[in-house]
Amino acid sequence: MLPESSSESPSSVLDWVRTDLFIGGRWIPAPNGATFAVENPATGETLAHVADATAQLGLDALEAATLAQPQWAAVPPRRRAEILRRAHDLLLERTEQFALLITLEMGKSLAESRSEVAYAAGYLRWFAEEAVRIDGGWKVSEDGSARVLVMRQPVGPCLLITPWNAPLAMPARKIAPALAAGCTSVVKPAPQTPLTTNALVSLLVEAGLPDGAVNVVPTSHASALSEPLMADRRLRKVSFTGSTPVGRLLLAQAAQNVLRTSMELGGNAPFVVCADADLDAAVAGAMTAKLRNIGEACIAANRFYVHAEVAEEFAERLVERMSTLSLGVGTDPSTDLGPLIDDRQRRRVADLVEETVAGGARLRAGGAVPEGPGYFYPPTVITDVPADARIIREEIFGPVAAIQTFTTEAEALHAANDTEFGLVSYVYTQDLGRALRMVEQIETGMVGLNRGYVSDPSAPFGGVKQSGIGREGGSSGIDEYLEEKYVAIDTT
Ligand code: NAD
Fold this sequence. Notes:
The chain is an alpha/beta fold. It is 39% helix and 20% strand. Pfam families: Aldedh (PF00171).
Protein backbone atom coordinates (compact mmCIF):
# COMPACT_ATOMS: atom_id res chain seq x y z
CA MET A 1 0.00 0.00 0.00
CA LEU A 2 1.19 3.53 -0.74
CA PRO A 3 1.79 6.02 2.09
CA GLU A 4 -0.97 8.47 2.92
CA SER A 5 0.91 11.35 4.49
CA SER A 6 0.88 14.56 2.50
CA SER A 7 4.62 15.28 2.43
CA GLU A 8 7.46 12.95 1.67
CA SER A 9 11.22 12.97 1.33
CA PRO A 10 12.80 11.59 -1.86
CA SER A 11 14.18 8.57 -0.01
CA SER A 12 10.86 7.60 1.58
CA VAL A 13 9.05 7.97 -1.76
CA LEU A 14 11.64 5.78 -3.44
CA ASP A 15 11.30 3.24 -0.61
CA TRP A 16 7.65 2.53 -1.33
CA VAL A 17 7.82 2.34 -5.12
CA ARG A 18 7.96 -1.19 -6.47
CA THR A 19 10.84 -1.89 -8.82
CA ASP A 20 9.76 -5.36 -10.02
CA LEU A 21 7.64 -6.42 -12.97
CA PHE A 22 3.90 -6.75 -12.41
CA ILE A 23 2.45 -9.85 -14.09
CA GLY A 24 -0.82 -11.62 -13.28
CA GLY A 25 -1.28 -9.60 -10.10
CA ARG A 26 2.16 -10.42 -8.67
CA TRP A 27 5.32 -8.37 -8.38
CA ILE A 28 8.18 -10.48 -9.68
CA PRO A 29 11.87 -9.84 -10.39
CA ALA A 30 13.41 -10.66 -13.77
CA PRO A 31 14.49 -14.36 -13.48
CA ASN A 32 18.22 -13.71 -13.80
CA GLY A 33 17.95 -10.68 -11.51
CA ALA A 34 18.60 -8.36 -14.45
CA THR A 35 17.86 -4.69 -13.77
CA PHE A 36 18.46 -1.33 -15.40
CA ALA A 37 19.18 1.98 -13.71
CA VAL A 38 16.76 4.90 -13.52
CA GLU A 39 18.52 8.23 -13.29
CA ASN A 40 17.60 11.58 -11.75
CA PRO A 41 18.14 13.99 -14.69
CA ALA A 42 18.76 16.90 -12.28
CA THR A 43 21.80 15.23 -10.72
CA GLY A 44 22.78 12.28 -12.92
CA GLU A 45 22.50 10.06 -9.83
CA THR A 46 20.86 6.65 -9.92
CA LEU A 47 17.44 6.66 -8.25
CA ALA A 48 16.65 2.96 -8.46
CA HIS A 49 17.32 -0.27 -10.31
CA VAL A 50 14.25 -1.64 -12.04
CA ALA A 51 13.66 -5.24 -13.17
CA ASP A 52 14.52 -5.56 -16.85
CA ALA A 53 11.85 -7.60 -18.68
CA THR A 54 12.89 -10.03 -21.39
CA ALA A 55 10.87 -10.94 -24.48
CA GLN A 56 9.64 -14.08 -22.68
CA LEU A 57 8.40 -12.00 -19.74
CA GLY A 58 6.56 -9.77 -22.20
CA LEU A 59 4.82 -12.89 -23.52
CA ASP A 60 4.09 -14.03 -19.95
CA ALA A 61 2.44 -10.66 -19.35
CA LEU A 62 0.35 -11.13 -22.51
CA GLU A 63 -0.64 -14.61 -21.30
CA ALA A 64 -1.80 -13.08 -17.99
CA ALA A 65 -3.73 -10.36 -19.84
CA THR A 66 -5.31 -12.95 -22.16
CA LEU A 67 -6.40 -15.16 -19.22
CA ALA A 68 -7.87 -12.16 -17.38
CA GLN A 69 -9.65 -10.75 -20.47
CA PRO A 70 -12.98 -12.68 -20.25
CA GLN A 71 -13.34 -12.10 -16.49
CA TRP A 72 -12.53 -8.38 -16.77
CA ALA A 73 -14.92 -7.95 -19.70
CA ALA A 74 -17.64 -9.57 -17.56
CA VAL A 75 -17.14 -7.20 -14.61
CA PRO A 76 -20.24 -4.95 -14.59
CA PRO A 77 -19.58 -1.44 -15.96
CA ARG A 78 -20.53 0.20 -12.67
CA ARG A 79 -17.90 -1.88 -10.85
CA ARG A 80 -15.27 -1.00 -13.46
CA ALA A 81 -16.23 2.65 -13.00
CA GLU A 82 -15.96 2.38 -9.20
CA ILE A 83 -12.40 1.03 -9.40
CA LEU A 84 -11.35 3.91 -11.68
CA ARG A 85 -13.13 6.47 -9.52
CA ARG A 86 -11.49 5.09 -6.37
CA ALA A 87 -8.11 5.26 -8.12
CA HIS A 88 -8.85 8.90 -9.01
CA ASP A 89 -9.62 9.74 -5.37
CA LEU A 90 -6.54 7.90 -4.06
CA LEU A 91 -4.33 9.59 -6.63
CA LEU A 92 -5.48 13.05 -5.59
CA GLU A 93 -4.93 12.15 -1.92
CA ARG A 94 -1.37 11.16 -2.80
CA THR A 95 -0.65 14.17 -4.99
CA GLU A 96 2.52 15.09 -3.13
CA GLN A 97 4.07 11.62 -3.29
CA PHE A 98 3.30 11.19 -6.98
CA ALA A 99 4.47 14.72 -7.81
CA LEU A 100 7.77 14.09 -6.06
CA LEU A 101 8.25 10.80 -7.88
CA ILE A 102 7.55 12.41 -11.28
CA THR A 103 10.00 15.22 -10.51
CA LEU A 104 12.69 12.78 -9.38
CA GLU A 105 12.63 10.60 -12.48
CA MET A 106 11.57 13.10 -15.17
CA GLY A 107 12.97 16.41 -13.84
CA LYS A 108 10.10 18.92 -14.16
CA SER A 109 9.36 21.28 -11.26
CA LEU A 110 7.14 20.10 -8.41
CA ALA A 111 4.46 22.61 -9.41
CA GLU A 112 4.34 21.11 -12.91
CA SER A 113 4.33 17.59 -11.51
CA ARG A 114 1.36 18.44 -9.28
CA SER A 115 -0.48 19.65 -12.38
CA GLU A 116 0.33 16.38 -14.10
CA VAL A 117 -1.14 14.44 -11.16
CA ALA A 118 -4.39 16.43 -11.41
CA TYR A 119 -4.43 15.99 -15.20
CA ALA A 120 -3.84 12.21 -14.97
CA ALA A 121 -6.51 11.88 -12.25
CA GLY A 122 -8.90 13.68 -14.60
CA TYR A 123 -8.58 10.82 -17.12
CA LEU A 124 -9.32 8.23 -14.41
CA ARG A 125 -12.48 10.15 -13.49
CA TRP A 126 -13.52 10.84 -17.08
CA PHE A 127 -13.26 7.19 -18.11
CA ALA A 128 -14.95 6.05 -14.88
CA GLU A 129 -17.88 8.12 -16.12
CA GLU A 130 -17.60 6.75 -19.68
CA ALA A 131 -17.53 3.08 -18.54
CA VAL A 132 -21.23 3.18 -17.67
CA ARG A 133 -22.23 5.00 -20.87
CA ILE A 134 -21.08 2.40 -23.43
CA ASP A 135 -24.14 1.91 -25.58
CA GLY A 136 -25.21 0.22 -28.78
CA GLY A 137 -27.92 0.47 -31.41
CA TRP A 138 -31.18 -0.96 -32.59
CA LYS A 139 -33.02 -0.37 -35.81
CA VAL A 140 -35.17 -1.89 -38.49
CA SER A 141 -33.26 -3.03 -41.57
CA GLU A 142 -33.90 -1.12 -44.80
CA ASP A 143 -36.28 -3.72 -46.25
CA GLY A 144 -37.93 -4.43 -42.91
CA SER A 145 -36.98 -8.11 -42.93
CA ALA A 146 -34.57 -7.93 -39.99
CA ARG A 147 -33.70 -6.00 -36.89
CA VAL A 148 -30.19 -4.57 -36.62
CA LEU A 149 -28.62 -4.89 -33.19
CA VAL A 150 -25.25 -3.16 -32.71
CA MET A 151 -23.22 -4.24 -29.68
CA ARG A 152 -20.00 -2.62 -28.48
CA GLN A 153 -17.50 -4.98 -26.93
CA PRO A 154 -13.94 -4.69 -25.63
CA VAL A 155 -11.26 -5.08 -28.30
CA GLY A 156 -9.29 -7.53 -26.13
CA PRO A 157 -5.75 -7.52 -24.71
CA CYS A 158 -3.86 -4.33 -25.54
CA LEU A 159 -0.20 -3.36 -25.64
CA LEU A 160 0.22 0.16 -24.22
CA ILE A 161 3.60 1.80 -24.93
CA THR A 162 4.31 5.16 -23.28
CA PRO A 163 6.97 7.92 -23.42
CA TRP A 164 8.89 9.54 -20.56
CA ASN A 165 7.73 13.15 -20.84
CA ALA A 166 4.53 12.70 -18.83
CA PRO A 167 5.28 9.57 -16.78
CA LEU A 168 1.89 9.50 -15.03
CA ALA A 169 -0.51 11.12 -17.50
CA MET A 170 0.57 9.03 -20.51
CA PRO A 171 -0.08 5.62 -18.89
CA ALA A 172 -3.24 6.94 -17.16
CA ARG A 173 -4.59 8.19 -20.51
CA LYS A 174 -4.30 4.68 -21.94
CA ILE A 175 -4.96 2.39 -18.95
CA ALA A 176 -8.14 4.25 -17.92
CA PRO A 177 -10.02 3.91 -21.24
CA ALA A 178 -8.77 0.34 -21.72
CA LEU A 179 -10.12 -0.67 -18.28
CA ALA A 180 -13.33 1.30 -18.77
CA ALA A 181 -13.99 -0.52 -22.05
CA GLY A 182 -13.30 -3.93 -20.46
CA CYS A 183 -9.86 -4.50 -21.99
CA THR A 184 -6.86 -5.98 -20.21
CA SER A 185 -3.38 -4.73 -21.02
CA VAL A 186 0.38 -5.10 -21.04
CA VAL A 187 2.02 -1.75 -20.30
CA LYS A 188 5.55 -0.96 -21.44
CA PRO A 189 6.70 2.29 -19.84
CA ALA A 190 9.62 4.36 -21.11
CA PRO A 191 12.90 3.14 -19.60
CA GLN A 192 13.69 6.65 -18.28
CA THR A 193 10.52 6.78 -16.13
CA PRO A 194 9.19 3.34 -15.14
CA LEU A 195 8.79 4.11 -11.42
CA THR A 196 5.70 6.31 -11.79
CA THR A 197 3.93 3.63 -13.87
CA ASN A 198 4.64 1.06 -11.15
CA ALA A 199 3.27 3.48 -8.53
CA LEU A 200 0.11 4.02 -10.63
CA VAL A 201 -0.46 0.28 -10.89
CA SER A 202 0.02 -0.17 -7.12
CA LEU A 203 -2.69 2.45 -6.69
CA LEU A 204 -5.05 0.69 -9.10
CA VAL A 205 -4.54 -2.55 -7.17
CA GLU A 206 -5.40 -0.74 -3.96
CA ALA A 207 -8.52 0.57 -5.72
CA GLY A 208 -9.63 -3.01 -6.46
CA LEU A 209 -8.05 -3.96 -9.81
CA PRO A 210 -8.23 -7.75 -10.29
CA ASP A 211 -5.18 -9.88 -11.14
CA GLY A 212 -4.05 -9.77 -14.75
CA ALA A 213 -6.20 -6.80 -15.80
CA VAL A 214 -3.07 -4.61 -16.06
CA ASN A 215 0.46 -6.00 -16.36
CA VAL A 216 3.63 -3.91 -16.46
CA VAL A 217 6.91 -4.86 -18.12
CA PRO A 218 9.61 -2.20 -17.89
CA THR A 219 12.54 -3.02 -20.13
CA SER A 220 15.76 -1.55 -21.45
CA HIS A 221 15.30 -3.33 -24.81
CA ALA A 222 11.97 -2.10 -26.16
CA SER A 223 11.99 -3.62 -29.61
CA ALA A 224 13.16 -7.08 -28.46
CA LEU A 225 10.21 -7.13 -26.06
CA SER A 226 7.56 -5.61 -28.31
CA GLU A 227 8.28 -7.45 -31.59
CA PRO A 228 7.16 -10.90 -30.36
CA LEU A 229 4.15 -9.28 -28.68
CA MET A 230 3.16 -7.52 -31.89
CA ALA A 231 3.46 -10.82 -33.78
CA ASP A 232 1.33 -12.73 -31.25
CA ARG A 233 -2.27 -13.23 -32.35
CA ARG A 234 -3.56 -13.02 -28.78
CA LEU A 235 -2.76 -9.28 -28.88
CA ARG A 236 -5.68 -7.30 -30.31
CA LYS A 237 -4.52 -3.72 -30.13
CA VAL A 238 -1.50 -1.48 -29.72
CA SER A 239 -1.76 2.06 -28.36
CA PHE A 240 1.48 3.98 -28.67
CA THR A 241 2.58 7.45 -27.62
CA GLY A 242 6.04 8.45 -28.74
CA SER A 243 8.03 9.57 -31.72
CA THR A 244 6.82 9.31 -35.31
CA PRO A 245 9.69 7.01 -36.47
CA VAL A 246 8.87 4.43 -33.78
CA GLY A 247 5.16 4.84 -34.55
CA ARG A 248 5.84 4.03 -38.21
CA LEU A 249 7.76 0.92 -37.20
CA LEU A 250 4.93 -0.28 -34.96
CA LEU A 251 2.35 0.41 -37.69
CA ALA A 252 4.35 -1.78 -40.08
CA GLN A 253 4.48 -4.55 -37.46
CA ALA A 254 0.76 -4.10 -36.72
CA ALA A 255 -0.04 -4.65 -40.40
CA GLN A 256 1.03 -8.30 -40.17
CA ASN A 257 -1.88 -9.22 -37.89
CA VAL A 258 -4.11 -6.31 -38.96
CA LEU A 259 -3.97 -5.09 -35.37
CA ARG A 260 -6.10 -2.17 -34.15
CA THR A 261 -3.81 0.82 -33.55
CA SER A 262 -3.89 4.19 -31.79
CA MET A 263 -0.88 6.40 -32.46
CA GLU A 264 -0.11 9.62 -30.58
CA LEU A 265 3.07 10.73 -32.33
CA GLY A 266 5.36 13.71 -32.69
CA GLY A 267 4.36 17.33 -33.19
CA ASN A 268 5.78 20.46 -34.76
CA ALA A 269 3.28 23.05 -33.55
CA PRO A 270 3.11 26.44 -35.29
CA PHE A 271 2.34 29.43 -33.02
CA VAL A 272 0.90 32.21 -35.17
CA VAL A 273 0.65 35.77 -33.84
CA CYS A 274 -1.31 38.09 -36.15
CA ALA A 275 -0.83 41.86 -36.20
CA ASP A 276 -4.22 42.35 -34.49
CA ALA A 277 -3.44 39.93 -31.63
CA ASP A 278 -3.62 40.91 -27.97
CA LEU A 279 0.15 40.89 -27.48
CA ASP A 280 -0.03 40.44 -23.69
CA ALA A 281 -2.11 37.33 -24.18
CA ALA A 282 0.14 36.10 -27.01
CA VAL A 283 3.30 36.45 -24.93
CA ALA A 284 1.67 34.74 -21.92
CA GLY A 285 0.39 31.97 -24.19
CA ALA A 286 3.82 31.58 -25.79
CA MET A 287 5.41 31.13 -22.36
CA THR A 288 3.00 28.30 -21.60
CA ALA A 289 3.05 26.70 -25.03
CA LYS A 290 6.85 26.83 -25.21
CA LEU A 291 8.00 26.18 -21.65
CA ARG A 292 5.41 23.88 -20.13
CA ASN A 293 7.13 20.58 -19.36
CA ILE A 294 10.48 22.31 -20.17
CA GLY A 295 9.46 22.27 -23.81
CA GLU A 296 9.45 18.46 -23.76
CA ALA A 297 5.84 18.16 -24.87
CA CYS A 298 4.33 16.93 -28.10
CA ILE A 299 2.04 19.99 -27.93
CA ALA A 300 4.94 22.42 -27.36
CA ALA A 301 5.03 25.40 -29.72
CA ASN A 302 7.88 24.61 -32.09
CA ARG A 303 7.75 27.34 -34.76
CA PHE A 304 6.71 30.92 -34.05
CA TYR A 305 5.26 32.89 -36.97
CA VAL A 306 4.78 36.50 -35.90
CA HIS A 307 3.46 39.32 -38.09
CA ALA A 308 6.35 41.62 -39.10
CA GLU A 309 4.65 44.66 -37.50
CA VAL A 310 4.71 43.15 -34.01
CA ALA A 311 7.58 40.64 -34.29
CA GLU A 312 10.26 42.75 -32.61
CA GLU A 313 8.05 43.69 -29.67
CA PHE A 314 6.91 40.08 -29.27
CA ALA A 315 10.51 38.82 -29.27
CA GLU A 316 11.66 41.45 -26.77
CA ARG A 317 8.82 40.69 -24.40
CA LEU A 318 9.39 36.95 -24.67
CA VAL A 319 13.10 37.42 -23.88
CA GLU A 320 12.19 39.62 -20.90
CA ARG A 321 9.70 37.10 -19.50
CA MET A 322 12.08 34.18 -20.00
CA SER A 323 14.90 35.98 -18.21
CA THR A 324 12.85 35.97 -14.97
CA LEU A 325 12.71 32.16 -14.84
CA SER A 326 14.96 30.13 -12.59
CA LEU A 327 16.56 26.96 -13.88
CA GLY A 328 17.23 24.34 -11.22
CA VAL A 329 16.53 21.05 -9.50
CA GLY A 330 12.79 20.37 -9.76
CA THR A 331 12.42 19.54 -6.08
CA ASP A 332 13.56 23.07 -5.10
CA PRO A 333 10.30 25.07 -4.66
CA SER A 334 11.88 28.14 -6.28
CA THR A 335 12.63 26.29 -9.53
CA ASP A 336 10.61 27.20 -12.62
CA LEU A 337 12.39 25.00 -15.15
CA GLY A 338 14.00 21.65 -14.44
CA PRO A 339 16.55 19.74 -16.55
CA LEU A 340 16.00 17.97 -19.86
CA ILE A 341 15.59 14.21 -19.65
CA ASP A 342 19.15 13.14 -20.50
CA ASP A 343 22.40 14.17 -22.08
CA ARG A 344 21.41 12.90 -25.51
CA GLN A 345 18.31 15.11 -25.55
CA ARG A 346 20.28 18.13 -24.31
CA ARG A 347 22.95 17.58 -26.98
CA ARG A 348 20.23 17.41 -29.64
CA VAL A 349 18.68 20.71 -28.52
CA ALA A 350 22.09 22.43 -28.22
CA ASP A 351 23.10 21.21 -31.71
CA LEU A 352 19.86 22.51 -33.24
CA VAL A 353 20.44 25.94 -31.69
CA GLU A 354 24.12 26.10 -32.71
CA GLU A 355 23.31 25.01 -36.26
CA THR A 356 20.51 27.61 -36.58
CA VAL A 357 22.70 30.44 -35.31
CA ALA A 358 25.57 29.34 -37.57
CA GLY A 359 23.05 29.48 -40.44
CA GLY A 360 22.44 33.22 -39.87
CA ALA A 361 19.78 33.42 -37.11
CA ARG A 362 20.13 35.84 -34.15
CA LEU A 363 20.45 34.40 -30.65
CA ARG A 364 18.44 36.70 -28.35
CA ALA A 365 18.50 34.73 -25.08
CA GLY A 366 19.93 31.50 -23.67
CA GLY A 367 21.77 29.13 -25.98
CA ALA A 368 24.63 28.15 -23.65
CA VAL A 369 24.86 24.77 -21.92
CA PRO A 370 25.43 25.42 -18.20
CA GLU A 371 28.31 23.74 -16.39
CA GLY A 372 27.78 21.29 -13.56
CA PRO A 373 25.69 18.17 -12.96
CA GLY A 374 22.25 17.61 -14.48
CA TYR A 375 21.02 18.07 -18.04
CA PHE A 376 19.97 21.72 -17.81
CA TYR A 377 19.37 23.93 -20.83
CA PRO A 378 18.26 27.56 -20.52
CA PRO A 379 15.16 29.13 -22.08
CA THR A 380 16.33 30.29 -25.49
CA VAL A 381 14.96 32.70 -28.10
CA ILE A 382 16.22 32.86 -31.70
CA THR A 383 14.94 35.35 -34.29
CA ASP A 384 15.62 35.79 -38.03
CA VAL A 385 15.47 32.02 -38.42
CA PRO A 386 15.94 30.94 -42.06
CA ALA A 387 12.80 29.32 -43.49
CA ASP A 388 14.61 26.09 -44.36
CA ALA A 389 16.38 25.65 -40.99
CA ARG A 390 16.29 22.15 -39.49
CA ILE A 391 14.86 23.63 -36.27
CA ILE A 392 11.72 24.53 -38.24
CA ARG A 393 11.26 21.04 -39.66
CA GLU A 394 12.10 18.92 -36.60
CA GLU A 395 10.52 18.64 -33.17
CA ILE A 396 12.83 20.54 -30.77
CA PHE A 397 11.60 19.02 -27.49
CA GLY A 398 13.35 21.69 -25.43
CA PRO A 399 12.88 25.30 -24.18
CA VAL A 400 13.81 26.98 -27.47
CA ALA A 401 11.59 29.48 -29.33
CA ALA A 402 12.50 29.90 -33.02
CA ILE A 403 10.82 33.00 -34.46
CA GLN A 404 10.07 33.85 -38.09
CA THR A 405 7.95 36.68 -39.50
CA PHE A 406 5.11 36.88 -42.04
CA THR A 407 3.09 39.64 -43.68
CA THR A 408 -0.09 38.01 -45.02
CA GLU A 409 -2.59 35.57 -43.57
CA ALA A 410 -2.10 33.25 -46.56
CA GLU A 411 1.65 33.23 -45.98
CA ALA A 412 1.17 32.35 -42.28
CA LEU A 413 -1.22 29.53 -43.13
CA HIS A 414 1.05 28.14 -45.81
CA ALA A 415 4.03 28.13 -43.41
CA ALA A 416 1.98 26.63 -40.56
CA ASN A 417 0.81 23.74 -42.78
CA ASP A 418 4.19 23.17 -44.44
CA THR A 419 5.12 20.14 -42.31
CA GLU A 420 4.37 16.43 -42.23
CA PHE A 421 3.16 16.85 -38.62
CA GLY A 422 -0.33 17.92 -37.58
CA LEU A 423 -0.86 17.61 -33.85
CA VAL A 424 -1.66 21.11 -32.59
CA SER A 425 -1.41 24.75 -33.63
CA TYR A 426 -1.81 28.04 -31.79
CA VAL A 427 -3.39 31.13 -33.32
CA TYR A 428 -3.59 34.60 -31.78
CA THR A 429 -5.90 37.12 -33.42
CA GLN A 430 -8.76 39.36 -32.27
CA ASP A 431 -10.46 39.31 -35.66
CA LEU A 432 -13.29 36.77 -35.56
CA GLY A 433 -13.40 36.22 -39.31
CA ARG A 434 -9.65 35.65 -39.48
CA ALA A 435 -9.80 33.32 -36.47
CA LEU A 436 -12.46 31.16 -38.11
CA ARG A 437 -10.68 31.11 -41.47
CA MET A 438 -7.44 30.04 -39.86
CA VAL A 439 -9.00 27.44 -37.57
CA GLU A 440 -10.77 25.90 -40.56
CA GLN A 441 -7.70 25.81 -42.79
CA ILE A 442 -4.99 24.82 -40.38
CA GLU A 443 -4.07 21.14 -40.68
CA THR A 444 -3.85 20.00 -37.06
CA GLY A 445 -6.00 17.81 -34.83
CA MET A 446 -6.16 20.52 -32.15
CA VAL A 447 -5.99 24.33 -32.16
CA GLY A 448 -5.36 26.72 -29.29
CA LEU A 449 -7.23 29.89 -30.29
CA ASN A 450 -5.96 32.81 -28.20
CA ARG A 451 -4.90 30.11 -25.72
CA GLY A 452 -1.45 28.57 -25.16
CA TYR A 453 -2.63 25.27 -23.78
CA VAL A 454 -4.83 22.49 -25.12
CA SER A 455 -5.54 19.22 -23.34
CA ASP A 456 -8.50 18.23 -21.26
CA PRO A 457 -9.88 14.77 -20.40
CA SER A 458 -13.25 15.77 -21.88
CA ALA A 459 -11.72 16.68 -25.27
CA PRO A 460 -10.44 14.47 -28.12
CA PHE A 461 -6.64 14.72 -27.97
CA GLY A 462 -4.80 13.65 -31.10
CA GLY A 463 -3.24 14.58 -34.39
CA VAL A 464 -3.64 14.39 -38.16
CA LYS A 465 -1.02 13.70 -40.86
CA GLN A 466 2.06 12.03 -39.36
CA SER A 467 1.17 13.09 -35.82
CA GLY A 468 -1.04 10.10 -35.36
CA ILE A 469 -4.18 8.07 -35.65
CA GLY A 470 -7.03 8.08 -33.13
CA ARG A 471 -7.97 10.21 -30.12
CA GLU A 472 -7.40 9.96 -26.38
CA GLY A 473 -10.08 11.47 -24.14
CA GLY A 474 -13.39 13.03 -25.02
CA SER A 475 -16.47 11.04 -25.84
CA SER A 476 -14.57 9.25 -28.63
CA GLY A 477 -11.65 8.20 -26.39
CA ILE A 478 -13.27 4.96 -25.26
CA ASP A 479 -14.12 3.98 -28.87
CA GLU A 480 -10.43 3.23 -29.42
CA TYR A 481 -10.87 0.21 -27.13
CA LEU A 482 -14.23 -1.03 -28.39
CA GLU A 483 -15.32 -3.14 -31.36
CA GLU A 484 -18.76 -2.94 -32.91
CA LYS A 485 -20.62 -6.17 -33.53
CA TYR A 486 -23.70 -6.11 -35.71
CA VAL A 487 -26.29 -8.82 -35.22
CA ALA A 488 -28.90 -9.31 -37.94
CA ILE A 489 -32.09 -10.69 -36.34
CA ASP A 490 -34.52 -12.26 -38.75
CA THR A 491 -38.09 -11.07 -38.29
CA THR A 492 -39.79 -12.63 -41.30
P1 NAD B 1 10.22 7.20 -28.37
O1 NAD B 1 9.43 6.97 -29.60
O2 NAD B 1 11.68 7.10 -28.45
O3 NAD B 1 9.77 6.18 -27.23
C1 NAD B 1 8.42 6.05 -26.81
C2 NAD B 1 8.23 4.67 -26.24
O4 NAD B 1 8.47 3.71 -27.27
C3 NAD B 1 9.19 4.31 -25.10
O5 NAD B 1 8.50 3.49 -24.19
C4 NAD B 1 10.26 3.51 -25.82
O6 NAD B 1 10.95 2.60 -24.97
C5 NAD B 1 9.44 2.76 -26.84
N1 NAD B 1 10.18 2.31 -28.02
C6 NAD B 1 11.28 2.88 -28.57
N2 NAD B 1 11.66 2.16 -29.65
C7 NAD B 1 10.78 1.15 -29.78
C8 NAD B 1 10.64 0.07 -30.70
N3 NAD B 1 11.49 -0.09 -31.73
N4 NAD B 1 9.60 -0.78 -30.54
C9 NAD B 1 8.73 -0.61 -29.52
N5 NAD B 1 8.81 0.37 -28.61
C10 NAD B 1 9.82 1.25 -28.74
O7 NAD B 1 9.74 8.63 -27.84
P2 NAD B 1 10.20 9.37 -26.51
O8 NAD B 1 11.54 9.97 -26.77
O9 NAD B 1 10.05 8.49 -25.31
O10 NAD B 1 9.08 10.49 -26.39
C11 NAD B 1 9.13 11.67 -27.11
C12 NAD B 1 8.23 11.59 -28.33
O11 NAD B 1 6.89 11.27 -27.93
C13 NAD B 1 8.13 12.90 -29.04
O12 NAD B 1 8.20 12.74 -30.41
C14 NAD B 1 6.74 13.41 -28.64
O13 NAD B 1 6.18 14.30 -29.54
C15 NAD B 1 5.98 12.15 -28.54
N6 NAD B 1 4.79 12.35 -27.71
C16 NAD B 1 3.57 12.41 -28.34
C17 NAD B 1 2.44 12.62 -27.60
C18 NAD B 1 1.09 12.69 -28.29
O14 NAD B 1 0.10 12.56 -27.59
N7 NAD B 1 1.01 12.87 -29.58
C19 NAD B 1 2.51 12.77 -26.21
C20 NAD B 1 3.76 12.71 -25.61
C21 NAD B 1 4.90 12.49 -26.38
